[in-house]
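subagent[fold] <- orchestrator: predict structure for attached chain, return tokens only, no commentary.
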Amino acid sequence: MPEMLDGRVQRRMRSREAVVDAVLDLLTEGHAHLTAPQVSARSGVSTRSIFRLFDDMTSLYRAAAARQAERLDALLAPLADDGPLAARIAALVANRAEVYETVSPVRRAAVRLAPASPEIASELARVAGLLRAQAAGTFRAELAGAGPGVLDAVDLLTSWEAWERLRTTQGLAAREAAATLRGALAALLDDVDT
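subagent[fold] -> orchestrator:
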């Protein structure tokens, strides 16, 4: 009996992971409004079984947000807080470009769902805090002598929202968006440094 129970638990876990992976894959491919039949077709798990694994689509999105958070945490690189400013700017922008290019399709869905999901809103706030702390640490020396609001400006320039605007609204390629951010950060932080 314990082996059969173990097998059931393992199948349930595999099915749950397949469903969550399917949601993330579909969002990454640009499907903005998912349906249970789409998730079922992608995951190979029946619609009925999906709703045995998850109470509703909102709880499924919560599980997908948690998985996405794990992916994001793995992408955030620890960055040097010393050395030439230009090198630190380049490292931060390169890391942000990698992170944002990876998470943007899922992030768009999370932003859309956040008003109705405290868990997703909380996760977005947690990530914003991590990104702000990464920038604060990377530019610790420059920010130490800066006036109020400079960290806020750095945080804004390096935010996902700024990246999204550069990439989608302004239509810049990733390398062009990165160059724009490097230039803006250099202008802001060089001015603080003097």
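orchestrator: received. Logging for downstream: Residues 2-54 form a domain with the Arc Repressor Mutant, subunit A fold (CATH 1.10.10). The first helix runs from residue 2 to 28.
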